[in-house]
Amino acid sequence: MGSKNNIERNKIDYILTDIMPVETSELFSFGKFYEYLSEHHKELNGILEELLKLKARNVYMFNGGIWASTPLKYNILKGVNGAREINIVQPSSALNIYFFIECYQKEILDYLENNNRFSLRYHRKNNDLYYRCKSQKLTEYFSKTSRKVNKSIIQQTGAYFKIHKFNSVSSFTNSRLWQQCNFKYRYFAKVDYKACFDSIYTHTYKWIIERNTVDSKDAKNSNMLIVIDRILQNINGRSSNGLIVGPEFSRMIAEILLQSIDKGVFEDLQLEGLIMKKDYRVFRYVDDIYIFANNSNDIDRIVKTIEKNAQKYLLRLNELKYFTTETPVLLNKWIEKTRILADKIAALFHNKKDLRDNDECDYLVKNGYISLERLKDEFAILMVDYPNDRRYIVSFILSTLLNNISNKKDGYKLFDTNKTGRAYILLELAFFVYSFCPCFEHSQKIISMIVYFDDELKFKDDENNHNKLVNLIRRYAFIFEKANLNDICNWFIFFNEYNISLLKNSEDVIYNRIIQENNPILWANYLIYSRYNLKYNGEVLNKLEEVISNNIMQMVADETLLQKEFWYVLIFVNCPYISTSLKIKLKEKVNLIPHLGNDVETKSGKLIYDFISTNHLNLFFYWGYYNFDACKQLTFRTYQRTLFKQYKNKRTVELYGSLDS
């Protein structure tokens, strides 16, 4: 049963929950589009009814019209030094995915349930009509300055369907099932698919039902697996190579293909006389495969069988990541030493039980001496000892800090009277740790810590505290100069809201890199940041208008949505800061969206065209005059994904991202 503290589930919530990647600017959202679609549910349902009729007639669906569009592609930090391409789909693709899910939801979920052999993570129907999102205290805390903590907080959650059986790798490796396998079997191996999402060839979905790959090229009907091929091409600019990373939707669709491989492996091993749960266990979490067996020969046979079945669908195992050992298995050798340091950091705070037992103390941060340099040194040693695990260690330590600081939401003060200066010691430690891996997830955590501190230090109003925060941030400006820009995009929003500017030499480095990136969302964030100074804002705006003009000049009249430059139209068509003449040029490009006609594709195009033509200040990018504090909302969203919520139960690492969760 739902209650006033929960958010009621709606069919089109899927557009908010499962289509947007986690690593996205806080000011980019499908929220207003969602609201528009909610208001025009009759038109939306009318299109869905037509599609269901086409499906019943076995017509090849989602072909032509506005369905095909090009996502916005950008890179985020993967691991410590690598890069991972992330995609934001266009609104036309969001509609395409939504209609597909509505037409094929039952078939997809039935397929995943019936073909599950080794899956640790697959989707099931969510019978709960409410998203259980917050306690009343939490609501009150975040609502002080944010009056819009409602539907917007379910964006990027991937929570439309239930995830079965495990929602993270660490929940599996900390489970009784993992322990039992370590006791029962003598040998273990771990392997993964090489560049799994990038290597998925969309036509291979047809091969699942059409074993003859020649015949599959001509297969055009409403069969789910055939339509999946079309959908995956539509949302990726008609490319059949690769599955876009970002939406939770992609993981669901990847699971269908990976389960087909699992099923083949299971059947082949049966023919060879290997019985699951007796001779071996195989577990797969998305593209990571964990194998337990009674002897090393069986491990080799299982790996070769996986390799053989994967090659049928053009996937390969990553030989460089093949790992085998005798049980019991210790995957995270860094964890114990990291816990020792984390315990020292946690000891800087009163825990809630102690506070409940002590009526005289109502603050979280203890008054004792904090040996900052010693904590830094101990952390630096971990970085040297475990260079390949830096991301996990940084995540663990930042989560320890944030989890203790976020206890403020339960009604506690952070500091004793006249002891707020201790905030800068904790922030110094946090920035030092963050500097070793400034990924998107860690950026959110640092910003969230500052937002919690702001309740007592009043950074925006207290000149002394504001100056101390500015000086601290400028000391660590090298992070912003060197970090992947998409991982630090929300810092520009934070700087704007807290009236913080970097020094000119740092700005010059970042500004030149933004020009090279040619990413409209980065440009939008930086334009907002630059508003602290009218002269500098004018320089940035002039350059941005030149960039926008050059991009839209390259567009041709045909197939507007397939051109990557159209993203500049989506982001800036309602920007209140650009010139009127440029707005007119952008609106001319909006007019090229197919919106005149009675076929189902054009009716979908009209929904997008009409929404953009409303001239609302905040369409896909929130330019201003929004009634929420972006940093408060970011903090709430970060809390929803906070790692190590059960840190005291000694859970190991969890990463919550578009690919890693």
TrEMBL record:
Pfam families listed in its UniProt record: RVT_1 (PF00078)
Keywords: Nucleotidyltransferase, RNA-directed DNA polymerase, Transferase
UniProt key word Transferase: yes
UniProt cross-references to InterPro entries, sorted A to Z: RT_dom (IPR000477)
Domain Reverse transcriptase: 1-339
GO MF terms held by the record: RNA-directed DNA polymerase activity
CDD domains attached to this UniProt entry: RT_Bac_retron_I
Name the UniProt record assigns to this protein: Reverse transcriptase (RNA-dependent DNA polymerase)
Gene source species: Ruminococcus albus
Lineage: Bacteria, Bacillati, Bacillota, Clostridia, Eubacteriales
